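Thread amino acids onto this structure.
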């Protein structure tokens, strides 16, 4: 039986107005969802970038000069893309919940790993041209290093998790550091841990609801998750912080990753949850912002139609030259 209120739009209007006035009376301000044309920056043309997000379909895009020049759209598979990386040769490595896959620009599969039952994969990174490091959530979570030429696992390192019966929430984003260590977001344990190539924990810091972490050139660690971004020094002290309260004029709900840019700014993604219901382009949040050290927003991306980029998880800027795969894990290069 349909809700009888749908028959009375005037009643719904009054209820909405009352709810808004009640929110204001309790100190809550209505969030302005600015149209794309009113946002700071140049929209899709602000940066060239590679884009992917956790969604019901597995979609990835390359945007250059304000236009989508490459796309990958998988509507038939399973899982969500939690991590993806565009390599210098044009190949794409991505973790899609139930596996990790390496494809060419023309979408030919070069290497694939399927997670076993009750396991998930939400992060992966290329090491050179021959190795992939990734984490497998599961009853016995592990860090793996795969040799894609031989098809063998060169390393299998057990990891701790807060709840081995809750696979999905254990780990998210992890990245290698310039020192060849591995910085891991233990989401269900609320901490970041740095491991060496033997699985020895070298450093850790408590970060509730942490989703991702990267090591900065200055030795600090940039974390995202739980509605805020933090820059944390080696002593575990927060030296810079950005929260959703710092952008009251924007609809910005779920911070996952943060990236420090060469110009000193920070790029922050905002994920939208399709499992809570369809996303209305007219009311959808911005998908990313670029913010200065003094918290001024210089770019906000909002593209839910023509093109619809979908929810945002990974945004890799392509303006700066370099090879993302030029990293190492201890002696593995």
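Threaded sequence (333 positions):
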């Amino acid at each position: 039986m349909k809700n009888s209120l749908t028959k009375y739009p005037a009643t719904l209007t009054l209820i909405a107005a009352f709810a808004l006035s009640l929110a204001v009376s309790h100190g809550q301000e209505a969030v302005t969802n600015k149209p794309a044309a009113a946002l700071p920056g140049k929209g899709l043309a602000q940066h060239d970038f590679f884009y992917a997000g956790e969604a019901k379909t597995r979609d990835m895009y390359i945007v250059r000069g304000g236009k989508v020049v490459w796309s990958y759209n998988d509507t038939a598979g399973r899982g969500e893309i939690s991590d993806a990386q565009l390599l210098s040769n044009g190949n794409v490595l991505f973790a899609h919940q139930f596996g990790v896959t390496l494809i060419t620009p023309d979408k030919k599969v070069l290497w694939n790993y399927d997670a076993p039952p009750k396991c998930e994969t939400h992060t992966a990174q290329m090491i050179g041209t021959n190795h992939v490091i990734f984490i497998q959530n599961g009853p016995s979570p592990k860090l793996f290093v795969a040799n894609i030429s031989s098809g063998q696992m060169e390393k299998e390192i057990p990891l701790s998790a807060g709840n081995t019966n809750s696979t999905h929430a254990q780990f998210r984003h992890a990245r290698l550091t310039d020192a060849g260590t591995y910085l891991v977001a233990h989401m269900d344990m609320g901490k970041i841990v740095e491991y060496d190539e033997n699985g020895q924990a070298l450093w850790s810091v408590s970060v509730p609801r942490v989703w991702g972490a990267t090591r900065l050139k200055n030795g600090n660690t940039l974390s995202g998750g739980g509605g805020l971004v933090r820059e944390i020094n080696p002593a575990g002290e927060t030296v810079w912080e950005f929260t959703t309260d710092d952008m009251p004029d924007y609809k910005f709900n779920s911070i996952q990753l943060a990236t420090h840019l060469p110009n000193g700014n920070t790029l922050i993604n905002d994920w939208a949850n399709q499992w809570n219901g369809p996303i209305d382009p007219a009311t959808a949040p911005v998908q990313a912002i670029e913010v200065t050290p003094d918290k001024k927003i210089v770019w906000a991306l909002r593209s839910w139609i023509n093109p619809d980029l979908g929810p945002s998880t990974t945004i890799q800027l392509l303006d700066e030259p370099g090879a993302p795969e030029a990293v190492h894990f201890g002696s593995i290069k």
